[in-house]
């Protein structure tokens, strides 16, 4: 039964987005609190970012046993991952499995993009209009739109005139893009480009990579999982969950409690080598000061640059790839499967668009300030309008006509990344100001959803009609987010998307909370224990 028309009773909650967060939030509100809830989703199916990121080589950088829900032992027991790092189709199968397992389908509405959401103050409800021409009403508006869902296609003159095909990795065509035997250009060498480049190189006649900023990458060392390991995950589910809740990045590994200076140069090299051989994001967990002490970071950076030069045979290409201008892991560190090795192939070439920028695109290909590159396909692996893009696209208006766009004109302002002053009864799962993209996301999603669910249960029990982040508490939290970032090397990268610097005109503000997941959880729990201190509660 749907509730889209004005004659029906308003819902208790509208959730926007059917990724992991939207699905789990539907489950808790509907099945634990017995509320009337619908999920509105623009795409044809569940998956969120994993629905759209279908580019060749798309894979999760979190280890598969950490990239799943742990709130239900039965759900854990019902699923096996096949590889250390799952590929996009397998993640999408997992998400569909979650929807089946929790019987979520009847309460999710697809092909329905939210076009606006307006707070109706006299009636204390949210009015949501959609691309289907409907209006939905609900007491609570919960955004579950993900942090990396708004593709950033660069505004390069002439793209419209390109005679070949082009696509963005984050909005990949559902029926794929055939690159067999074609001349392909990839723009961008972030995590997506680094995953896609080795796979595209195997398909294309020739691949030209347009690199603006050279990047670190650690081998993923992906491999199929053994039956023993699959059993181990099920048997130790509680321990795995506990570990992820205790670590700063919500991964299944601890940061070693030692400084890079606690060991000799020889020992340090051996530690890096072992981490390189093991592969994965835990390379950055080898020492606890890599993100705080630039000189400690340099030791890791130099190790990786040396590896690049060892792997890549052409000295000029090796120089371009290892000429990295930022500290290791101060931008999101990619992990890869044979990325640097790919540059040893005869059909792959690297173009330096930092020194010779792209001037325009024409019917035949890309023109840089140095040369013209004829292409049949252009792949933009150019990232996202991260964290705020999808929220702002929803045209949200809160109390007294305040738009989210105006409220955030100088950068996102929230309390705990959960609520925004001026927008009562609206919750933002993994919103800006929460650890979100600095974490392995499923544990952070579980924590946010559980917090919101407990909060709504409390509001109902206390007869509170409206909850809104206090302005002073939010200002203080924004300061804490800045302070936490400034304790690290993260804000020092001038072109980081953590700062919004990748999108022209976006305010330059460090968006995720860098104080660590465990610390953040503690703060959220404390706020709840104190009767939701820092929120205005109106009867
Ligand atoms: P990222 O990490 O934002 O990487 C985007 C890449 O595209 C990066 O190399 C950018 O160079 C490059 N870029 C962006 N805009 C341009 C323009 N206009 N011209 C040339 N090159 C450009 O996005 P990803 O999709 O790879 O990864 C996003 C997250 O997804 C990742 O962190 C994981 O959490 C999963 P730049 O560095 O800005 O010079």
Question: What features would you describe in this structure?
Answer:
The chain is an alpha/beta fold. The chain contains 16 helices and 20 strands. The strands form 5 sheets. Strands 1, 2, 3, 4, 5, 6, 17 and 18 form an 8-stranded mixed β-sheet that branches. A hairpin with a 3-residue loop joins strand 14 (365-368) and strand 15 (372-374). The site of ligand NA7 has 22 residues, from helix 5.
Which labels suit this protein?
single chain; 539 residues; alpha/beta; FAD/NAD(P)-binding domain; 2 domains; eight-stranded mixed beta sheet; five-stranded parallel beta sheet; 16 helices; 20 strands; binds ligand NA7
The fraction of residues assigned to DSSP E strands is 15-25%
CATH structural architecture of the largest domain: 3-Layer(bba) Sandwich
CATH top level of the largest domain is Alpha Beta
Bound molecules: ligand NA7
CATH topology of the largest domain: FAD/NAD(P)-binding domain
Question: Which stretches of 5+ consecutive residues score pLDDT under 50?
Answer: none
Mean of pLDDT = 96
In DSSP terms, counting alpha (H) and pi (I) runs of 4 or more, how many helices?
A: 16
Q: Estimate the helix proportion, in percent.
A: 25-40%
Largest sheet: 8 strands, mixed
Give the gist of this structure.
This protein is of the alpha/beta class and 539 residues long.
Helices and strands, with pairings:
Layout: E1 11-16, H1 20-32, E2 37-40, H2 49-52, H3 73-77, H4 88-101, E3 108-109, E4 114-120, E5 125-130, E6 135-143, E7 165-168, E8 183-187, H5 191-203, E9 206-211, E10 218-219, H6 227-235, H7 237-246, H8 265-278, H9 294-311, H10 315-322, E11 335-336, H11 339-342, E12 348-352, E13 358-361, E14 365-368, E15 372-374, E16 377-380, H12 389-392, E17 396-397, H13 404-407, E18 426-428, H14 441-462, E19 466-469, H15 471-486, H16 517-529, E20 535-538
Bound molecules: ligand NA7.
Ligand NA7 binds at residues 148, 154, 169, 187-193, 212-213, 332, 353, 381-384, 437, 495, 497, 502.
